[in-house]
Structure formats: C-alpha cells, structure tokens
Amino acid sequence: MTTNNRQRWIWSLCILGVVVILTVANGSSSIVSSDRSTLSSQIRSNEYNTIYMPTRLAELGWMDTVEYYRNAVVEASQLLEMQNEANEKAIAKSKGKLWNELTDYEKYTVDISPLYDVVVEAVDTIGVKGLVFDVFTPELNEWYDLEEDDACMGSENHGYNCAHYGVWWFYHYVGSILGEKLVQDGRLLWDPMTGEESTDFFDLQDKIHEREELPFAWEMSFHVQHGLLWYYALYYMPDMMEFPTQLVHDFCGRWVHDSTVLENGKQIGFSCVHGFGHMVFNVVANRQIDPLREHPLNARRQVKPNSGFELNHQSLCQIQKICAAAKEQGDAWEHDAEANNAEYVTNVGNRCEGGAIHSMKLMAATLPTKSLNAQKRKELARHFREEQEICASEDGKGKNNDQHQLSADYGIASAGDDTVEASGIELESHQGEPSADDAKTRNWTG
C-alpha cells in the first residue's frame, strides 16, 4: 500500500458521516451509513463502557456527530416528503380508485422508517440526551420552510396542518421510537460521556423532566414525552377501557402538583398530563383502524396526520367513557389536595378530553384555506360534545356500560380474557404487561 493510499485510508476512517446512502425498496426505506453502523455496533459490543465512549466521541468530535444526525434527520424528512408526493400523485392519477381500494390501515397510517432508522442509530451513539437536546434544537428548524413553519408551528395553531414529514411530528415520533427501542433492548443509553442509561419508561421520563427545567429547554422535550407515553399505552394497554390513574403519577411525578411556569413559558405538569389525552386517542384510534390486529405494533408505523381519519361513534364513546372516569378521579384528587393545602396543575379529565380533541383535529384533512381549516376544527370539537351527550344517554340505557359489548364491536379482549375470537382469528389480549422493573409503583389499570 503506498503512502498516499495509506493516508487516504486513515482519513476515511476519521471523517464522520461523509456519505449517507438512501435506499428505497419495496415501499420501505432506510438510511445507511457504514461508518455509523460500524461505530454503533462497536458501542453496543462494549456495553457502553464509560472509558471507551468518551474516547470514541473525542476522535469523532461531538458537534460533528450532532451535525451528522441533524443532516440525517433532514434527509429522512426529504425522503418521506418525496414518498408522500408520489403516493398522492398515484391516487390522483387513478381518480380516487386507488384510494377506495386501500384498507383503513393503509389510508390512515404512515411508514416513518427513514426517521426510525436515524433515531435508533443516534441513540446508540450520542444517547437520548444528545438526540433530544442537541440534535433537535432551533438550529434544526433552519431546513424547515419558514412559511410552513409559521403555519403549523405558531402558538395559536398547536401543530395543525403540520405534515408528518415535518419537524413538529418528528418531535412526537422520536418519543414513540424511543419507547419501542426501550422495550426491545431493555435499556437506552442516556449520556455516552458517563455511560448513564435508562432501564424503564419512568426513569427516562424523569430524566427528560429534569432537563426541561433548564432555561434552554426547547419544544422537542415537551412533545417527545407524548410519543413515549402513547407507545407505552399501545404496548402495555391496547385493550384500555379505564383511565390509568396511577400512570399519571408514575409518568408526571411531582409535576402533577406543580403549576410553575418556566422561563421558557412551559408548564411541565400541564404538558405531561395533556399527553394522556393523546395517549387515549392513539389507543382507541389504532383499535378502530386495525380492529382485528392484523398488524403487530410497530413504531415505524404511525397514525397519519391530515389524513382525514375520523373516530366513529363507538370509538368516541370509548374515549368519553375513559375521560369521564379521569374527571371523577381528578375531582377526587383536587378535593384531597385542597384539604392538604396542595394543588393539581389541572384536572386530568379536562386534559384527557382536551388531548383527545386536539388529536382529532390533527388528523383532519387539510382544506384549501386557513378559515376553512379553522371551521373544520370547530366542527370536530362540537361533534365531540354532541356525541358526548349521545354516549351518556346510551350508557344510561345500558348500551355502553358493558365492557364485553364494547370489546366485541372491535374484536378485542375484555379485561381478564386471554384471547378473543373475532372472525375466526384468535387474538392476544395484550402485547405484554409491565414487569416489576418497568415501573416505580405499578397499579396498572387497563
């Protein structure tokens, strides 16, 4: 080997992330980097060794590593956008025929594999802390079209009309992906500089909350917990018919009692409890979209925003029954808190309904003008309230107070059932329940 060739070979090992290969095959996609994949494998094989990790990152450079993953996230967004445009063109070309041939699962969920692949690799390299608090910062938004940024990221819009391949939804999807990786690996690297890990959902949430107290905490951390929470529920509580009251305390901790507004204008407790409404929506929506559970839970596949998905009457009644129980519990908590001169940041029932309605609006098909979109969102909120009265009336007549009847309509298992027969298909009632290691205190309901 000549000296020049040897030098080129050495430099090729030292330069981080020079090439990102985008491969699209059979409708799926992935981001592959030989340098990165090798590094991630080495890190995993060394069990996150606290001496090895800083050495490796020192060779590569922390900021260069962060910048690499920012670029990878951008590439994932661009690929998802191209796939979306291709799908829309194909549907338009068929004059709607193709759309009518699709199943609800194909219509109302979307494959986010390009982002998924970036996230699982990044966590093994720079940890959750590096991904959430260094990669997803305001600088990342520079790739995001300013006009679209204002349209979907403005404080008054709450993510409405944001595309699934945009940064707002990426904030949430990262949380869901982290949840799946935690379940599969049994741990997540938090900080590669110290080797610190998280081995359960609640410890991970606590670490995120601690960082949220810092003045520089950005939007990402307040949204990522919502995706983490809905993956937890989809995995451990797919048959949820009751509100998981203990889970509010396990996930939100002391912030349930703290209404402090931080320097960044956020309330940790409010944001955390609001996520329970998104959680309830996602569990019920997934049951409606895939009633026979023909598709295993997979964080690569998410309910698609702006897809026009709407909850049917039965699903709305399920959500309202769950949230009504949450409100009863919230009232009791507030009464006990007042007796002890304490407070709750918000009634969990209100946040349950608010988060669910928010999710409904996020799924609505995007209309041509801002005013039409606003009108549609008002109609959805009004529809939720109207259905609430109908559901309550039916419940009083005994139509909705039997969990077995609700379960039968969706082919899902009732509490205590091991399996349920639906159209001749035997279904598991749960993906699995949390082990003792999965929770600090587990009074699991669902």
Query: What is the percentage of strand-forming residues?
Result: 5-15%
Q: Helix amount, in percent?
A: 55-70%
Task: Sum up the overall morphology in one term.
Answer: globular
- Report how far the terminal alpha carbons are from each other: 65 Å
Task: Return residue spans where pLDDT drops below 50 for at least 5 consecutive residues.
Answer: 5-55, 401-446
Radius of gyration: 23 Å
- Overall mean pLDDT stands at 76
Order the strands across the largest sheet as they lie in space: 1-2
Tally of DSSP β-strands: 8
Largest sheet: 2 strands, antiparallel
Structural class: mainly alpha
Topology as H/E string? HEEHHHHHEHHHEEHHHHEHHHHEE
Number of helical elements? 17
What's the structural domain tally? 1
Keywords: Signal
Signal peptide: 1-27
Biased composition (Basic and acidic residues): 391-402, 427-446
Region (Disordered): 391-446
Question: How is the secondary structure organized here?
Answer:
Elements: H1 3-14, E1 21-25, E2 28-32, H2 34-45, H3 52-60, H4 62-93, H5 97-101, H6 104-108, E3 109-111, H7 113-135, H8 146-153, H9 167-185, E4 188-191, E5 196-198, H10 201-212, H11 219-236, H12 245-252, H13 268-289, E6 301-303, H14 313-339, H15 348-363, H16 370-396, H17 403-410, E7 419-422, E8 425-428
Antiparallel strand pairs: 1-2, 3-6, 4-5, 7-8
Helix pairs in contact: 2-7, 4-7, 7-9, 9-11, 10-11, 11-13, 13-14, 13-15, 14-15, 14-16
